[in-house]
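Reminder: ligand-aware prediction takes two inputs, not one.
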Amino acid sequence: MQEIVKAEEKKIGMTEAWLRKHRPVYQAATKHPFIRTIRDGTVQSHSFKTWLAQDYLFVREFVPFVASVLIKACKESDDNDDVEVILGGMASLKDEISWFKREANKWGISLSEVIPQNANKNYCQLLESLMSPEVDYTVALTAFWAIEVVYQESFAHCIEEGSKTPPELKETCERWGNEGFGQYCKSLQKLVDQRLQKASDDELKKAEVMLLSIIEHEIEFWNMSRGN
Ligand SMILES: Cc1ncc(CO)c(N)n1
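Here is what comes back for the chain with HMH:
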């Protein structure tokens, strides 16, 4: 019996085991009240606009963070898959920034005047701290995956069967909720699991704590747009 449980654990990978262990807090991020209002069609336009404007600022800061993960992958990974997957993520950020500009235009938001709120500043500070060469690749990669997967799950939830997402928000939800982005998150997750298999107990602990920290920051980020 013990054997079977172990095999099962190995099959699901460490990241999946962590998501199950921390399911309540993970769900608080992926099924956040703001996301629920998008999904049920009751979202207020000013809540959406707040999210859009703040996320544009976040993504700008996310670019150098992803670049730092790429550098770590080039230096430390013995597996070329890592570099290619991360490079693909970086490349799509160029299009993402253009999309934010177009979308902001549509909603009448002047991006140059947006001021980052505290939750955003805190999150960007975390990204900045992760860019340090002292932070090991496994921990930074775990953070990267966690950041992407929260958005993927959240927005996929808004385009599932039975969702009442307003048509003008569908494109946003599809950006992160689409199948391709889902596959990309799975690729990242696989890279993380590979690294975690070889990690020391200390690294494992740090990576798990980092996952939780990202989830908390994502919740705070959504909170900027909740029912106001
Ligand atoms: C806050 C936040 N988390 C994750 C993503 C996904 O890239 C994003 N754009 N913004």
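The mean pLDDT is 94. The pocket of HMH is lined by residues 55, 58-59, 147-148, 151, 218, 221 (CB under 6 Å). We will return to this case in the review session.
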